[in-house]
Each structure stands twice: as C-alpha cells, then as structure tokens.
Amino acid sequence: MRPSGRNLDELRPISIETGVTAHAEGSCLIKCGNTHVLCTASLEERVPPFLKNTGLGWVTAEYGMLPRATHTRMRREAAAGKQSGRTQEIQRLIGRSLRAGIDRVALGERQITVDCDVIQADGGTRCASITGGWVALRLAVNKLMAAGDVLSDPITDHVAAISCGVYAGQPVLDLDYPEDSEAGTDANFVMTGSAQMIEVQASAEGATFSRDQFAELLSLAEKGVSELVAAQAKAIA
Q: Residue 125 annotated as binding?
C-alpha cells in the first residue's frame, strides 16, 4: 500500500487554474496533490545576443522555491548571493523541455521566459513546473497569435512531465515526498502529447533496477503524461 492510499498507476489529484496573475502574458497555478507551483510566461521582443539577427526565437525558464515551500524554512537563494546547483539544473531542464515543443522559426526573433515558483513542495516540483510551464507558455503564445504577431502557431505539441519510481519493490506513478525519500529507484520522464520522449532522468537510489522494471516505469509514465496532457487541454480550452 502506498502512503497516500493511491493505486500503483494513479496520479495525485491534478488541477490547473489559469489567469492567476494580472500582468504576465500567460499564467497558471498547477496543483499536483500537495505540490503547488505558480507558472508565468513573459514575452519580450528581443533574444539573447547569440541569437540576434538569426530569425530564431528562444524559450527559457527560471525556477525557485519559496522559503516555506518545505517542512522547514529555507534561506532565499538571493540572500545567499547565488543559485544552488539543484536550482540551475532544474531550470535548465524546464527550458530544454519547453523548447522541444516550440518551432523557433515560427516564434520569430522574440523570447518567452517561463518562471516557475514553488509555493508548496511535496515531491515532483520539476515535473509540475514543466507541465504548468507549458500551459503558461501556451497562453502567452495565444496572445501573440490573437495580435497577429506570428503567422503560424509556434507550439508543435504538448509537453508534460511525470515522476515514477520503485517504491517498496513496486513500480509506482507520481511519487510524493514520502515515496520519493524512500524510493529504491527514482525517474523523471518528459514527453510530448504524442508520446515522444524529450528527456529521461533515472537513477538507483540505494537499489539497482532491471530493464524490465525500467520498461514498467516507462509504461506508467506514458499513462501519467497522457492524463496530464488531458488536464492541460482542459485548462486552456
């Protein structure tokens, strides 16, 4: 039995509320169980210097956790004067993932920055950030299209992410913190709406895993991502 009482292939309750901030071109609050992330997408009519005069657009991301997102207060990284390696790794993952669902030629020479701020953490914050970040990105692109600033839709597919792992010897979907902290294997899958893989992060956390177990995790991830994509589609409808 999982600590939450969920079935092995059951997601935590998912909700995505859009339009939660007044100023961002796209925004949403995604809740995956007790993990809550505020995602905003900001449009700028410029690109980084290495893309200037190329005609290519850019999507990037920033990620952070509020001090009391976890059980004990964390010091703000701004107060420490630098980002942790974990934060840098996660925001690069979010940026890579979202760019995989964008036609940068169709986007044109402009940048969209997706900010993902974790309000409350209970495992799977990077996956929730990617899933919610795509919704914020979609809403920002919708504004570009409504204004006639792009000729065709730059978004080529949904992008969503889910965690899986081997907990108490069983492959399970969508780890919460009690499972994540005890899992023998921990994996994150980033996929498109058409079930194409963008990135897979999988590691043994005290116990190795077999090829068959990895295949089971992949099957769980495909199921989970399809349900997340359905939630995204409902949110932006």
A: yes
- The answer on whether 86 is annotated among ligand-binding residues is yes
Q: Is 126 annotated as a binding residue?
A: yes
* Residue 46: other Cβ atoms inside 10 A: 11
Total domains, the chain: 1
Give the residue numbers spanning the domain of 85. 14-72+79-236
Instruction: Please state, as a whole number, how many other Cβ atoms lie within 10 Å of the Cβ of residue 184.
Output: 17
Q: What is the mean pLDDT of residues 121-132?
A: 98
In this prediction, residue 206 carries a pLDDT of 77
CATH code where residue 192 lies: 3.30.230.70
- Across 182-191, average pLDDT: 96
Assigned domain for 180 exists:
yes
Q: Is 124 annotated as a binding residue?
A: yes
Burial of 215 (0-12, 13-18, 19+ CB in 10 A): exposed
Asked if residues 44 and 31 have their Cβ atoms less than 8 Å apart, the reply is: no
